[in-house]
Amino acid sequence: MTLAASLSLLPRAASGILFGVCLIALGCFVNVPTRPPAGGNSAAVQVAGLQLEFPAESELLAALDEFAQKHPRVELVVLSEYSLQRPPSEEFKEWCRRYQRYLIVGGKDFVSDDKFYNTVFVVDPNGEVAFRQAKSVPVQFFADGLPAREQRLWNSPWGKIGFCICYDLSYRRVADRLVQFGAQAIVVPTADEMSWGEREHRLHARVAPTRAAEYATPIFRVSSSGISQLIDARGRVLATAPFPGQGAIIEGRLELGRPGHLPLDHWLAPLSALVTAAIILWLSAKTLLGKISRL
What we know:
Radius of gyration: 24 Å
Strand content: 15-25%
Number of strands: 12
CATH topology: Nitrilase/N-carbamoyl-D-aminoacid amidohydrolase
Number of domains: 1
CATH class: Alpha Beta
Number of helices: 8
Strand order of the largest sheet: 5-4-3-2-1-12
Helix content: 25-40%
Shape: elongated
CATH superfamily: Carbon-nitrogen hydrolase
Order of helices and strands: HHEHEHEEEEEHEHHEEEEH
Oligomer: single chain
Distance between the termini: 35 Å
Largest sheet: 6 strands, mixed
């Protein structure tokens, strides 16, 4: 804004030329890749997500059995938010032991009869809950659980993975913290209900590519009824599963390279707000002093 205001002080022809040059430079700057392709020190995991909206546990176990037999190369299986109404039962732990897979599943972690954390659980091939993370920002006016007490990363066999549960990804303060911790990838279990309609699903699906591009961090987002997405560190959507898509499967390679980084506006936005506030105070003081001097 300061630069735009300064251009108005120049002759019209010169300001027009300089404005065009600045606009081209800005366009080039914001489109420069923020991260090179993953190097030799990167790791990759074959991931897959299964879209099922609020299934019964028996239905979910049957779907997982069928999935495991058809997709033997998948190492990490992700289910959506609220796939379970409790922590993973012994049947799900046995599934992980039988097929030697990691399972990420959303459920409820109760602390009392009526209070719970909306939680993502990671079950390892030994059938143990190796990690859990609660939702940081429950949806207001919904029975969406208590806010998480802390955020942590899962030190997976392939690298550090962070979790944003559904609308957590829409909050910069949530995603920023994961990137500051050194996340190499973000997994997003989501419960976009089918009744919300295609427009809401398409709108919500625009968030993940934006986040991946600004943090230079790959994202794997699995929604209960679509649109699920596998996105690389440059914000390119590599695979999707459609809406409505009950039983649809999304599969691909999740590349974990260098940790992501905070976008430039993480520092520029507070600075810009501070400068704006200083200008407002200066102009207000100048106006007030001018009125006093005329008394």
